[in-house]
């Protein structure tokens, strides 16, 4: 890597790897979730993630680069953590709380990634790429907010109710 644009491309490859891994993770999390609203949130975000991958491909086309070549180790770790939670023998209510927490860890990683990438793209004069990244950044923030509302209004309350009854 010699230039800021080279760094942008490498980090975009990492993000592309991350998003492709997240597709598999979201499918498993949607299947594991017991709350219908949480299942729906994961399924909705899965569709968004597939669109985000398409946006990344557009960015690579604009940059004249190939999206393949990196493996996002951070996302591998976050998904492995989520898998550990799904493998534990938790009550339905606790499982849903743990799934929201795992999903929000991923969302925060994505928010940080897309925010930084958008800034780098702007600095490189890649306004079209910055716009694509900005669209995804806003979706990631909205998903995080949706998960927070779901946790506050339903998921965590159900776990507290079960814990008090035990």
Features:
166 residues, mainly alpha, Ferritin
Could you characterize the architecture of this molecule?
The protein is mainly α and 166 residues long. It has one domain (4-161): Ferritin, CATH 1.20.1260. 86% of the residues lie in helices and 0% in strands. It has 5 helices and no strands. The radius of gyration is 17 Å and the shape is elongated. The N and C termini lie far apart (57 Å). The model has no long low-confidence stretch (mean pLDDT 95).
Task: Write a short abstract of this structure.
This protein is mainly α and 166 residues long.
Q: Which CATH architecture would you pick?
A: Up-down Bundle
Cα radius of gyration in angstroms: 17 Å
Total number of helices: 5
Strand content: under 5%
CATH topology: Ferritin
| Main beta sheet strand tally, sense and closure | none
DSSP helix fraction: over 70%
Number of strand segments: 0
Structural shape: elongated
Structural class: mainly alpha
* Low-pLDDT residue spans: none
Mean pLDDT: 95
Q: What letter string, H or E per element, gives the SSE order?
A: HHHHH
Q: Topology of this protein?
A:
Elements: H1 4-32, H2 36-63, H3 73-87, H4 92-123, H5 127-165
Helix pairs in contact: 1-2, 1-3, 1-4, 2-5, 3-4, 4-5
């Amino acid at each position: 890597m010699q230039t800021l644009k080279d760094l942008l491309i490498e980090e975009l490859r990492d993000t592309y790897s991350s998003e492709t891994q997240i597709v598999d993770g979201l499918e498993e999390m949607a299947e594991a979730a017991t709350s219908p609203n949480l299942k729906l949130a994961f399924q909705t975000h899965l569709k968004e993630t597939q669109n985000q991958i398409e946006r990344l491909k557009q960015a690579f086309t604009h940059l004249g680069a190939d999206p393949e070549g990196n493996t996002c180790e951070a996302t591998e770790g976050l998904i492995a953590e989520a898998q550990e939670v799904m493998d534990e023998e938790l009550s339905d209510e606790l499982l849903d709380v743990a799934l929201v927490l795992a999903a929000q860890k991923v969302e925060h990683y994505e928010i940080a990634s897309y925010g930084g990438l958008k800034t780098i793209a702007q600095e490189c004069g890649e306004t079209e790429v910055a716009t694509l990244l900005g669209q995804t950044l806003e979706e990631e923030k909205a998903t995080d907010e949706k998960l927070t509302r779901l946790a506050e209004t339903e998921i965590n309350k159900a776990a507290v109710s079960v814990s008090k009854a035990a």
